[in-house]
Every structure is written in structure tokens, then in C-alpha cells.
Structure of DNA (cytosine-5-)-methyltransferase:
Amino acid sequence: MTKSVIAELSAIPEKFLENDLKASQFHSQGCLYPYLETKKLLNGSNVFYPRVIGERDPNDPFCWRWGYNWKEKHNGVWKGKSIGSIPPGAVHMIWTLQQQGAIREDIIAFIKRAKTKKPSPKSDVCKNFHNTDKKPILPDDAPIAVVLFAGGGGIEAGMVEAGIRPVIAVEFDPSKPELSRAIAKTHHHNFSEYGCRIIQLTVQEVAQSGFLGFPRYPDYLHASPVCANFSQAHTAKAGKGIETADDLTAAIALAEAIRQLQPRVFTLENVPRYQNSQSFSIILNALEQEGYSVDYSVVNMADFGLPQARRRLVLVASRGFGIALPAYRKLIGWYDAIAHLIPMMTDSQLLPKQQQAVEKFLAANEPTPLLIERVGGRKDVKYKPAHLPCNTILRSHFTDHKGCNRSKFADIWLPDGTVKSLSIEGAAILQGFPSWYEFPNETATAGSIIGYSVPPSFAAQLFTHIQKQLSGAFL
């Protein structure tokens, strides 16, 4: 919508609809439009609502009232209908629905849901985390986010916990199309009620379209580019990281997203070795050219309360001021995180190598619960005692070399000799997923979502911390 169009549309919804009905072309999809409320004060002057300080920004939805009208034919006669007072926080999503060809009925249904959502107090945004199955309810004016390389939505789960509304997520891996579609389906199941639209195209393809239907100036843009060629497991096999043409074109597309969308804050997560790649340099150059202040470092997410040792590169960029990472938290052992689930887990038996690992541990230590991997570990089986975070959870733990389900991926040995098979629910908690997130039944898909994801508990801390710093910067 152009500046001139927005500036001219200041009629009340009914008047706009009356004028629109005179047009020769009927809009079967409906029309979203801005308007201003006019009120006359006692002194005879007129004021316009919503009130703004300074000039009214034609590109800021919160500077306008919003309505939606459409036409229906009854007994051969076209009649107009209209919905006014649409929450401005829903405008970007309605634009996206229109530009991507959604039918009018779906748009109207989304608008009605947006109008009936009750805002939550800001202080209550994170109260549901790990305490209840109830999903957070976001206020209509919640900040919005776009996510590239979305996977199953680990970063989005953290965003929602921090009071941020994901509106577009891009997820498609052409090297694993069936798995990617299954992951995208789970993403839609968990986040569609927040108005999040998942696009099953590659980021390169979306960039070629000029990011059609994406909101400009979103509050957040996040990316977790595919990291397989930079992971420690890959380089252990290949001898070195092999940066491919796909890696480079993905980085170029991401740089273009930064230039075109101009997010308020840009975040990135990847494996540590990504920082040494040409792909990362491309992204850094784009941020520098666009005037962002950039801070990045390799962090162990166990230092932020995740019951898992997980080292990842984390970047935060914003304009005009720097944003620091949140403060460290107390270390949490894997056992304390999932002890309540262990009695309900399936009984198991240790493999010979696992049994040897237990005996080796007991020869030098007092008995304590052990979490023991069933796969990986070319020399020794990996395990962790109860008081420590578990080892890094990988997608490969849940699938064999053909991508099929593993019936068991890790075992829990208890001092009384009981052995339990770690469940998907337990693995999800160790990865920081909130209890309201619903996983698919297939182990390979659920495990891939867990292994690929940014831990939502870390993401929630990160974005809550950023939100507080942004608020302080503009007080």
C-alpha cells in the first residue's frame, strides 16, 4: 500500500465502504484499509485518532485505525459488508494472507480471532513456561517476527514465551523434502493460532520473489541457516568443513532479507564453526552496510539454565545501540529436569558397551543416575551423571543412516539397577521445549525437530532480555 493511498483514506468505515461500492470492479477477496477517527473538541477543533506524536507514519500500522470490507451478492444485488476496529498488530498478517491469495473466508476468520483475543498483562507473558499445558496468549500489539530456516519452531516457541508473535516462517530443505514437509506441518499445528504462516520454499526462492508478502520493518528477523557442512560431526567424517554453493546462496539470500526487510533486531544461531565461513562473512557485511551494531559469541547454553551442554554461535544485531546477552544462570543437571517423567518411561536393557561404561563409572564414583547414549561415540559410549547437563542432543540420535526411526536413542541407568529408555518428551525437556508444544508421533520427525531446534528456553531468555533492553533504550 503506497503512502498516497494511506494518506487519503481517512473516512469512517461506513463511508469508505459506500465509496468503494461505486467502483466498477468488485473485490471478491475483500479490501483492508486504513482510516482515522475524527472527533470534535469543545473548542470546535478536530482531533484524529489514533493520536500520534510528530508526523503520522504511513508505514506504521499503529498510526491508523483499520477496517476490512467485502461484497456479497444477495438476490442478484451486490451488498457491502465491513469489519472495523481491527487490531493493528494483525495488519501485517492480513496483508500477507491477501498477497498470498488466501480466500476471503479465511481472512475474515483470522480477523475475528484477532478481535476476540484478550490481551495479557505484560508481566504475565512468561508465566506459563514449563508450568502448565496452556499456551501463552499474546496481546494484539505484540512485537512481530519473521523466521528463516524455521524447522519445527524452537525459536518461535521461545519468541511466544517472550511475548513476540511470529508472523512468517520459511521452512523447506530440498535435500530432505518429505521430512521438511512433516516438520512444517508440525510447525503449522503449533503456531497457526498466533497468525504464523509457514512458507514451504527455500530462503533462496523467497528472496528471488523479493520477499513478497513479508512485513517490512518487523521487530525481529531470525535465521538459523542449515549447519550440516559446518558441524563437528560432519568435519570429523570429512576432515574439514566443506562450504557448498547452497551455503553461500543461502547466506546471500539472508543478506538480502536484512536489506529488504530492515528488521529492528536481527538474530542468528548456528554451530560454532559457522563463524569461520564465507557465508557468515557475507551476513556480517550486510549488517555492517545497513548500519547495525553487531555482537556475537559462542555460548554454552547450559550456562543459561538448559539441562544440556550445547555450544552454539549466537549473534544479535540492532541499530543505534548494542544488545548484550542475558546473564548466566545456575547449572541444571539432566536428572532434576526429567526426574518426574522417569517412572513412566519404557523399560530397557543396556547394550554391552553401555554396561561397560556403567561399570567403569562405578569403579571410581558413588552410584548416581546415568544418562547413556545408545548411538554415536566411536571410541567410548557417552554418558553423564545426574548432576551435570546432558551431552548435546543431535538429530542423528533419533534416526539411522537411512533416516528411519530408532526405537531407542538413550537409556537412563538408576542405582537400583533399573534401566529406562529416554522418551521423546524427556528429550524435548532437555532441549528446553515448553510443555504446550505438541510433537508428531513419528520418532524420526519429532527427534529431527528436537535436534535441529534452537532450545526454546534459551530463546525465551534471549528475547525477553532483548525486549527489556529495547524498552530501556527508548524510555
Summary: Residues 1-27, 118-132, 234-239 have pLDDT under 50 and may be disordered. Residues 3-116 form one domain.
